[in-house]
Amino acid sequence: MAADSKTEKATPKKRRDERKEGHIFFSKDIVSVVFIFGAFYSLKLLLPGMYQSTGSFMVHFVEMSGTQESLPSGMLQSIAGEFAKTCVSCLLPILLICMGLSIVATGAQTRFLFSRKSVAPKLSRLNPIKGIKNLFSLRNLVELLKSMLKIAILLYIMYGMLKDDFIAVVRTMDMDIRLSAVYMLNLIMDMIIDISLVFAVIAFFDYLYQRWEYERSIKMSKQELKEEYKQLEGNPEIKGKIKDIQRQRARSRMMQAVPQADVIIKNPTHFAVALKYKIDQDNAPLVLAKGQDHLALRIIEIGEAHGVTVVENKPLARSLYASTEINQEIPSEYYGAVAEILVYVYKLNKKDGASNEKTIK
Protein backbone atom coordinates (compact mmCIF):
# COMPACT_ATOMS: atom_id res chain seq x y z
CA MET A 1 0.00 0.00 0.00
CA ALA A 2 1.41 3.38 -0.98
CA ALA A 3 2.58 5.55 1.87
CA ASP A 4 0.72 8.59 0.51
CA SER A 5 -2.60 6.73 0.92
CA LYS A 6 -2.11 6.62 4.68
CA THR A 7 -3.73 9.90 5.63
CA GLU A 8 -5.62 9.00 8.81
CA LYS A 9 -4.30 9.38 12.36
CA ALA A 10 -3.43 6.15 14.14
CA THR A 11 -6.08 4.66 16.40
CA PRO A 12 -5.41 3.76 20.06
CA LYS A 13 -5.22 0.09 19.06
CA LYS A 14 -2.66 0.86 16.35
CA ARG A 15 -0.58 2.79 18.89
CA ARG A 16 -0.73 -0.09 21.37
CA ASP A 17 0.33 -2.56 18.68
CA GLU A 18 3.23 -0.36 17.61
CA ARG A 19 4.33 -0.02 21.22
CA LYS A 20 4.28 -3.80 21.67
CA GLU A 21 6.57 -4.04 18.65
CA GLY A 22 8.92 -1.54 20.28
CA HIS A 23 8.11 1.16 17.73
CA ILE A 24 7.95 4.44 19.66
CA PHE A 25 9.31 7.92 19.12
CA PHE A 26 12.51 8.64 20.97
CA SER A 27 15.05 11.47 20.89
CA LYS A 28 18.63 10.44 21.65
CA ASP A 29 19.62 14.10 21.79
CA ILE A 30 17.42 14.63 24.84
CA VAL A 31 19.31 11.88 26.66
CA SER A 32 22.67 13.28 25.53
CA VAL A 33 21.85 16.78 26.77
CA VAL A 34 20.62 15.45 30.11
CA PHE A 35 23.85 13.44 30.40
CA ILE A 36 26.00 16.52 29.65
CA PHE A 37 24.13 18.74 32.12
CA GLY A 38 24.28 15.99 34.74
CA ALA A 39 28.03 15.60 34.25
CA PHE A 40 28.59 19.34 34.39
CA TYR A 41 26.61 20.06 37.56
CA SER A 42 27.77 16.93 39.37
CA LEU A 43 31.37 17.83 38.50
CA LYS A 44 30.78 21.36 39.75
CA LEU A 45 29.23 20.03 42.96
CA LEU A 46 31.89 17.40 43.64
CA LEU A 47 34.87 19.41 42.44
CA PRO A 48 36.04 20.60 45.91
CA GLY A 49 36.17 17.01 47.18
CA MET A 50 37.90 15.82 44.00
CA TYR A 51 40.43 18.62 44.28
CA GLN A 52 41.18 17.65 47.87
CA SER A 53 41.51 13.93 47.04
CA THR A 54 43.79 14.41 44.04
CA GLY A 55 45.78 17.07 45.89
CA SER A 56 46.39 14.76 48.83
CA PHE A 57 47.49 12.00 46.47
CA MET A 58 49.88 14.28 44.59
CA VAL A 59 51.41 15.61 47.82
CA HIS A 60 51.86 12.08 49.10
CA PHE A 61 53.41 10.96 45.81
CA VAL A 62 55.82 13.91 45.66
CA GLU A 63 56.90 13.34 49.26
CA MET A 64 57.62 9.69 48.55
CA SER A 65 59.49 10.51 45.35
CA GLY A 66 61.59 13.17 47.05
CA THR A 67 62.80 10.94 49.86
CA GLN A 68 63.97 8.04 47.70
CA GLU A 69 66.07 7.85 44.55
CA SER A 70 64.26 4.75 43.28
CA LEU A 71 60.94 3.33 44.36
CA PRO A 72 60.70 -0.37 45.18
CA SER A 73 58.16 -2.46 43.24
CA GLY A 74 55.96 -2.90 46.30
CA MET A 75 55.71 0.85 46.76
CA LEU A 76 54.91 1.33 43.07
CA GLN A 77 52.02 -1.12 43.39
CA SER A 78 50.81 0.77 46.45
CA ILE A 79 50.94 4.08 44.60
CA ALA A 80 49.15 2.58 41.58
CA GLY A 81 46.43 1.18 43.83
CA GLU A 82 46.01 4.49 45.61
CA PHE A 83 45.86 6.30 42.27
CA ALA A 84 43.17 3.92 41.01
CA LYS A 85 41.22 4.34 44.25
CA THR A 86 41.42 8.14 43.94
CA CYS A 87 40.19 8.03 40.33
CA VAL A 88 37.29 5.73 41.20
CA SER A 89 36.23 7.83 44.20
CA CYS A 90 36.26 10.95 42.02
CA LEU A 91 34.65 9.63 38.84
CA LEU A 92 32.23 6.95 40.09
CA PRO A 93 29.70 9.38 41.69
CA ILE A 94 29.63 11.43 38.48
CA LEU A 95 29.10 8.34 36.33
CA LEU A 96 26.32 7.07 38.61
CA ILE A 97 24.53 10.43 38.56
CA CYS A 98 24.80 10.66 34.77
CA MET A 99 23.60 7.08 34.31
CA GLY A 100 20.64 7.69 36.61
CA LEU A 101 19.65 10.87 34.77
CA SER A 102 20.01 9.13 31.40
CA ILE A 103 17.75 6.30 32.56
CA VAL A 104 15.15 8.82 33.75
CA ALA A 105 15.36 10.79 30.47
CA THR A 106 14.95 7.57 28.49
CA GLY A 107 12.11 6.28 30.68
CA ALA A 108 10.27 9.60 30.48
CA GLN A 109 10.13 9.24 26.69
CA THR A 110 9.50 5.50 26.45
CA ARG A 111 7.55 5.00 29.70
CA PHE A 112 10.21 2.43 30.56
CA LEU A 113 9.24 0.19 27.66
CA PHE A 114 11.26 -2.96 27.08
CA SER A 115 10.21 -4.93 24.03
CA ARG A 116 11.92 -8.18 23.11
CA LYS A 117 10.59 -7.84 19.59
CA SER A 118 12.56 -4.65 19.00
CA VAL A 119 15.88 -6.36 19.83
CA ALA A 120 15.08 -9.77 18.33
CA PRO A 121 17.01 -10.62 15.14
CA LYS A 122 15.01 -10.16 11.95
CA LEU A 123 15.91 -11.45 8.49
CA SER A 124 14.42 -8.32 6.95
CA ARG A 125 17.25 -6.32 8.49
CA LEU A 126 19.71 -8.31 6.36
CA ASN A 127 17.97 -7.30 3.14
CA PRO A 128 20.60 -5.26 1.20
CA ILE A 129 18.02 -3.49 -0.97
CA LYS A 130 16.07 -2.36 2.07
CA GLY A 131 19.34 -1.34 3.74
CA ILE A 132 20.26 0.88 0.79
CA LYS A 133 16.81 2.48 0.86
CA ASN A 134 17.15 3.17 4.58
CA LEU A 135 20.61 4.63 3.98
CA PHE A 136 19.09 7.37 1.83
CA SER A 137 15.93 7.81 3.89
CA LEU A 138 14.70 11.13 5.26
CA ARG A 139 15.50 10.03 8.82
CA ASN A 140 19.15 9.27 8.02
CA LEU A 141 19.47 12.50 6.07
CA VAL A 142 18.20 14.47 9.07
CA GLU A 143 20.58 12.59 11.39
CA LEU A 144 23.51 13.39 9.07
CA LEU A 145 22.64 17.09 8.90
CA LYS A 146 22.16 17.16 12.66
CA SER A 147 25.58 15.61 13.28
CA MET A 148 27.25 18.05 10.89
CA LEU A 149 25.49 20.94 12.63
CA LYS A 150 26.70 19.75 16.03
CA ILE A 151 30.30 19.45 14.85
CA ALA A 152 30.17 22.91 13.23
CA ILE A 153 28.74 24.49 16.39
CA LEU A 154 31.27 22.70 18.58
CA LEU A 155 34.20 23.91 16.46
CA TYR A 156 32.79 27.43 16.29
CA ILE A 157 32.40 27.71 20.06
CA MET A 158 35.87 26.29 20.70
CA TYR A 159 37.41 28.60 18.11
CA GLY A 160 35.62 31.66 19.50
CA MET A 161 36.65 31.02 23.08
CA LEU A 162 40.27 30.13 22.25
CA LYS A 163 40.53 33.15 19.97
CA ASP A 164 39.43 35.50 22.75
CA ASP A 165 41.54 33.81 25.45
CA PHE A 166 44.50 32.58 23.42
CA ILE A 167 47.02 34.96 24.97
CA ALA A 168 45.75 34.18 28.48
CA VAL A 169 46.02 30.44 27.77
CA VAL A 170 49.63 30.86 26.64
CA ARG A 171 50.46 32.87 29.75
CA THR A 172 49.22 30.07 32.00
CA MET A 173 52.52 28.31 31.26
CA ASP A 174 54.29 30.91 33.40
CA MET A 175 51.67 30.87 36.16
CA ASP A 176 51.55 28.83 39.33
CA ILE A 177 50.31 25.34 38.49
CA ARG A 178 47.27 25.68 40.77
CA LEU A 179 46.24 29.03 39.31
CA SER A 180 46.81 27.68 35.82
CA ALA A 181 44.64 24.63 36.54
CA VAL A 182 41.84 26.78 37.98
CA TYR A 183 41.90 29.11 34.97
CA MET A 184 41.81 26.27 32.44
CA LEU A 185 39.06 24.52 34.38
CA ASN A 186 36.90 27.67 34.38
CA LEU A 187 37.52 28.07 30.65
CA ILE A 188 36.46 24.49 29.99
CA MET A 189 33.37 24.90 32.21
CA ASP A 190 32.28 28.01 30.27
CA MET A 191 32.77 26.12 27.03
CA ILE A 192 30.68 23.18 28.27
CA ILE A 193 27.86 25.53 29.31
CA ASP A 194 27.73 27.21 25.88
CA ILE A 195 27.84 23.87 24.07
CA SER A 196 25.17 22.37 26.35
CA LEU A 197 22.76 25.28 25.82
CA VAL A 198 23.10 25.05 22.04
CA PHE A 199 22.71 21.28 22.11
CA ALA A 200 19.63 21.67 24.32
CA VAL A 201 17.98 23.79 21.61
CA ILE A 202 18.91 21.18 19.00
CA ALA A 203 17.52 18.43 21.25
CA PHE A 204 14.21 20.29 21.63
CA PHE A 205 13.72 20.52 17.87
CA ASP A 206 14.90 16.93 17.46
CA TYR A 207 12.21 15.83 19.93
CA LEU A 208 9.55 17.65 17.90
CA TYR A 209 10.89 16.13 14.68
CA GLN A 210 11.00 12.59 16.11
CA ARG A 211 7.41 12.97 17.28
CA TRP A 212 6.29 14.26 13.88
CA GLU A 213 8.17 11.47 12.09
CA TYR A 214 6.64 8.85 14.39
CA GLU A 215 3.09 10.15 13.87
CA ARG A 216 3.69 10.15 10.11
CA SER A 217 5.05 6.61 10.13
CA ILE A 218 2.06 5.11 11.97
CA LYS A 219 -0.66 6.80 9.92
CA MET A 220 -3.33 4.49 8.58
CA SER A 221 -5.28 4.25 5.36
CA LYS A 222 -9.06 4.36 5.35
CA GLN A 223 -9.11 0.69 4.41
CA GLU A 224 -6.98 -0.17 7.46
CA LEU A 225 -9.39 1.77 9.66
CA LYS A 226 -12.32 -0.21 8.27
CA GLU A 227 -10.55 -3.54 8.79
CA GLU A 228 -9.59 -2.64 12.34
CA TYR A 229 -13.17 -1.61 13.10
CA LYS A 230 -14.43 -4.95 11.79
CA GLN A 231 -11.93 -6.82 13.98
CA LEU A 232 -12.93 -4.86 17.05
CA GLU A 233 -16.61 -5.29 16.28
CA GLY A 234 -16.18 -9.08 16.21
CA ASN A 235 -14.19 -9.21 19.44
CA PRO A 236 -16.48 -10.40 22.30
CA GLU A 237 -14.43 -8.56 24.91
CA ILE A 238 -14.60 -5.29 22.98
CA LYS A 239 -18.29 -5.83 22.34
CA GLY A 240 -18.87 -6.30 26.05
CA LYS A 241 -16.98 -3.11 26.88
CA ILE A 242 -18.93 -1.15 24.27
CA LYS A 243 -22.22 -2.43 25.68
CA ASP A 244 -21.13 -1.54 29.20
CA ILE A 245 -20.30 1.99 28.09
CA GLN A 246 -23.62 2.28 26.25
CA ARG A 247 -25.50 1.07 29.34
CA GLN A 248 -23.67 3.54 31.56
CA ARG A 249 -24.45 6.42 29.22
CA ALA A 250 -28.10 5.39 28.92
CA ARG A 251 -28.35 5.11 32.70
CA SER A 252 -26.78 8.55 33.10
CA ARG A 253 -29.27 10.09 30.65
CA MET A 254 -32.10 8.29 32.43
CA MET A 255 -31.07 9.70 35.81
CA GLN A 256 -30.84 13.20 34.35
CA ALA A 257 -34.47 12.89 33.21
CA VAL A 258 -35.85 11.90 36.66
CA PRO A 259 -36.32 15.53 37.89
CA GLN A 260 -38.70 16.12 34.93
CA ALA A 261 -41.07 13.36 36.09
CA ASP A 262 -44.56 14.08 37.43
CA VAL A 263 -44.63 11.02 39.67
CA ILE A 264 -42.49 8.08 40.74
CA ILE A 265 -44.36 4.84 41.41
CA LYS A 266 -42.48 2.49 43.70
CA ASN A 267 -42.64 -0.92 45.31
CA PRO A 268 -41.00 0.14 48.56
CA THR A 269 -37.38 -0.62 47.70
CA HIS A 270 -37.36 -3.15 44.84
CA PHE A 271 -38.90 -1.27 41.89
CA ALA A 272 -39.35 2.35 40.85
CA VAL A 273 -40.81 3.84 37.65
CA ALA A 274 -40.72 7.59 36.89
CA LEU A 275 -43.60 8.83 34.71
CA LYS A 276 -44.24 12.07 32.89
CA TYR A 277 -47.52 13.17 31.32
CA LYS A 278 -48.37 16.43 29.59
CA ILE A 279 -52.03 16.54 28.61
CA ASP A 280 -51.48 18.83 25.62
CA GLN A 281 -48.41 16.94 24.32
CA ASP A 282 -48.55 13.23 25.21
CA ASN A 283 -51.05 10.58 24.16
CA ALA A 284 -50.25 8.55 27.27
CA PRO A 285 -47.90 8.74 30.28
CA LEU A 286 -44.25 8.38 29.27
CA VAL A 287 -41.63 6.32 31.14
CA LEU A 288 -38.61 8.53 31.87
CA ALA A 289 -36.75 6.11 34.13
CA LYS A 290 -37.09 2.74 35.77
CA GLY A 291 -34.91 0.69 38.04
CA GLN A 292 -34.62 -2.25 40.38
CA ASP A 293 -33.04 -2.53 43.85
CA HIS A 294 -30.19 0.01 44.28
CA LEU A 295 -31.11 1.73 41.00
CA ALA A 296 -34.71 2.08 42.20
CA LEU A 297 -33.50 3.66 45.44
CA ARG A 298 -31.33 6.06 43.43
CA ILE A 299 -34.31 7.11 41.26
CA ILE A 300 -36.39 7.72 44.38
CA GLU A 301 -33.57 9.68 46.00
CA ILE A 302 -33.12 11.95 42.97
CA GLY A 303 -36.86 12.43 42.61
CA GLU A 304 -37.33 13.42 46.24
CA ALA A 305 -34.39 15.82 46.01
CA HIS A 306 -36.12 17.61 43.11
CA GLY A 307 -39.61 17.64 44.61
CA VAL A 308 -41.10 14.84 42.52
CA THR A 309 -44.02 13.10 44.25
CA VAL A 310 -43.28 9.47 45.14
CA VAL A 311 -46.27 7.12 45.36
CA GLU A 312 -46.16 3.56 46.65
CA ASN A 313 -48.19 1.02 44.70
CA LYS A 314 -46.58 -2.41 44.83
CA PRO A 315 -48.42 -4.34 42.07
CA LEU A 316 -48.47 -1.37 39.66
CA ALA A 317 -44.77 -0.59 40.14
CA ARG A 318 -43.81 -4.21 39.47
CA SER A 319 -46.07 -4.47 36.40
CA LEU A 320 -44.88 -1.19 34.88
CA TYR A 321 -41.24 -2.17 35.40
CA ALA A 322 -41.77 -5.51 33.64
CA SER A 323 -43.82 -4.25 30.69
CA THR A 324 -42.32 -0.87 29.74
CA GLU A 325 -39.15 0.57 28.20
CA ILE A 326 -37.43 3.92 28.68
CA ASN A 327 -38.92 6.83 26.66
CA GLN A 328 -41.96 4.74 25.70
CA GLU A 329 -45.63 5.14 26.60
CA ILE A 330 -47.17 2.80 29.16
CA PRO A 331 -49.41 -0.05 27.90
CA SER A 332 -53.11 0.78 27.61
CA GLU A 333 -54.12 -1.72 30.32
CA TYR A 334 -52.49 0.53 32.92
CA TYR A 335 -54.15 3.78 31.82
CA GLY A 336 -56.84 3.64 34.51
CA ALA A 337 -54.53 2.87 37.45
CA VAL A 338 -51.96 5.48 36.42
CA ALA A 339 -54.69 8.07 35.72
CA GLU A 340 -55.94 7.72 39.32
CA ILE A 341 -52.43 8.31 40.64
CA LEU A 342 -51.84 11.33 38.38
CA VAL A 343 -55.13 12.91 39.44
CA TYR A 344 -54.14 12.35 43.05
CA VAL A 345 -50.69 13.88 42.43
CA TYR A 346 -52.11 16.94 40.66
CA LYS A 347 -54.46 17.56 43.59
CA LEU A 348 -51.64 16.94 46.06
CA ASN A 349 -49.36 19.44 44.35
CA LYS A 350 -52.00 22.14 44.65
CA LYS A 351 -52.02 21.85 48.42
CA ASP A 352 -49.49 23.99 50.24
CA GLY A 353 -47.15 22.14 52.55
CA ALA A 354 -48.23 18.72 51.31
CA SER A 355 -45.97 15.74 52.01
CA ASN A 356 -43.67 14.66 49.22
CA GLU A 357 -44.50 10.97 49.59
CA LYS A 358 -47.91 9.27 49.79
CA THR A 359 -48.99 5.67 49.60
CA ILE A 360 -52.01 4.39 47.66
CA LYS A 361 -53.18 0.90 48.50
From TrEMBL:
The keyword Transmembrane applies. The chain crosses the membrane at residues 23-43, 83-108, 144-162, 182-209. GO terms for biological process: bacterial-type flagellum assembly; protein secretion. The keyword Cell membrane applies. GO terms for cellular component: plasma membrane. It is a multi-pass membrane protein. It is found in: Cell membrane. It comes from the Bacteria. Pfam families: Bac_export_2 (PF01312). Gene3D superfamilies: 6.10.250.2080, secretion proteins EscU. Its main location: membrane. Keywords: Bacterial flagellum biogenesis, Bacterial flagellum protein export, Cell membrane, Cell projection, Cilium, Flagellum, Membrane, Protein transport, Transmembrane, Transmembrane helix, Transport. NCBIfam families: flhB. PANTHER family: FLAGELLAR BIOSYNTHETIC PROTEIN FLHB. Belongs to the type III secretion exporter family. Required for formation of the rod structure in the basal body of the flagellar apparatus. Together with FliI and FliH, may constitute the export apparatus of flagellin. This is Flagellar biosynthetic protein FlhB. It comes from Zhenpiania hominis. The lineage of its organism: Bacteria, Bacillati, Bacillota, Clostridia, Peptostreptococcales.
